Amino acid sequence: MKEQEYFNVADIFGENVFNDAVMRERLPKKTYQKMKDVISQRRELDLETADVVAHEMKEWAIEKGATHFTHWFQPLTGVTAEKHDSFITAPMSNGKVLMSFSGKELIKGEPDASSFPSGGLRATFEARGYTAWDCTSPAFVRQDAAGATLCIPTAFCSYTGEALDQKTPLLRSMEAVSDQAVRLLRLFGNTTSNRVTSSVGAEQEYFIVDREKYLQRKDLIYTGRTLFGAMPPKGQEMDDHYFGSIRERIAAYMRDVNIELWKLGVSSKTQHNEVAPAQHELAPIYAEANVAVDHNQLIMETLKKVAGRHGLQCLLHEKPFAGVNGSGKHNNWSLVTDDGINLLDPGKTPHENVQFLLILACVLRAVDEHADLLRESAADVGNDHRLGANEAPPAIISVFLGEQLQDVLTQLIESGSATHSISGVKLETGVKTLPDFMKDATDRNRTSPFAFTGNKFEFRMVGSQDSVGEPNIVLNTIVAESFADACDYLEAADDFDSAVHNLIKQLVTDHQRIVFNGNGYSDEWVKEAEKRGLPNIRSMVDAIPALTTKKAVALFERFGVFTEAELASRAEVEYELYAKEINIEAKTMIDIAGKQIIPAVIKYATKLAESINSITAACPADVSVQTELLVQVSELLAETKEGLAHLQDAVEQGCRMEDDNQARAVFYHEKVFAAMEALRRPVDELEMLVDKEAWPMPSYGDLIFEV
Ligand code: ADP
Ligand code: MG
Question: Which of 17, 202, 392, 523 would be a feasible disulfide site paired with 265, CB 3.0-4.6 Å?
Answer without folding.
Answer: 17
